[in-house]
Amino acid sequence: MLTCFIRYEIDPFGKEAFAEYARNWGQAIPRNGAHLIGYFAPHEGSATTAYGVYSVESLAAYEAYRARLAADPLGAENYAFARDKRFILKEDRIFLRNVSLPHAQAVTP
Q1: Which end of the chain is more exposed for a tag (fewer CB within 10 A), N or C?
Q2: Is pLDDT of 44 > 90?
Q3: Which residues contact 109 (CB under 8 A, 6 or more apart)?
């Protein structure tokens, strides 16, 4: 399993547009084959850094997922929304694997 971490630099006046973008991915990403962990927008501190996090089985699964996402009506609409509104200034992605597994059960004090 690989987890994709996307770091966005967003326009500080585009936080609401980013939130709409994130909600749209909340529908499109799972139905196209990736496990969405979530999109995270500025709350306190930096007003320009946001994240998207999802997992896929492999890089091959990622390529197939990206093709399905681009063909999905909401996916295509969301890509166009971001392009037209220009609230994303920069986007970086990295694929990581979880090397701390298995985790212990959480203990409630």
Answers
A1: C
A2: no
A3: none
Residue pair 76/28 in contact by the 8 Å Cβ criterion: no
Query: What single letter denotes the amino acid at residue 44?
Result: E
Q: Residue 64 — φ and ψ, nearest 5°? A: -65, -40
Over residues 74-102, the mean pLDDT reads 97
d(CA 26, CA 41): 13
* Joined tokens for residue 52: 């998207």
Strand partners, 38: 53
Alpha-carbon distance of 109 to 86, in angstroms, equals 46
- Under 8 Å between Cβ of 7 and 92: yes
The confidence score (pLDDT) of residue 68 equals 97
Task: Please tell me whether the peptide bond between 42 and the residue prior to it is cis, using omega within 30 degrees of 0.
Answer: no
The strand pairing partners of 95, in sequence order, are 4
Q: What average pLDDT score do residues 3-12 get?
A: 97
Output the six-digit token pair for 71: 């063909």
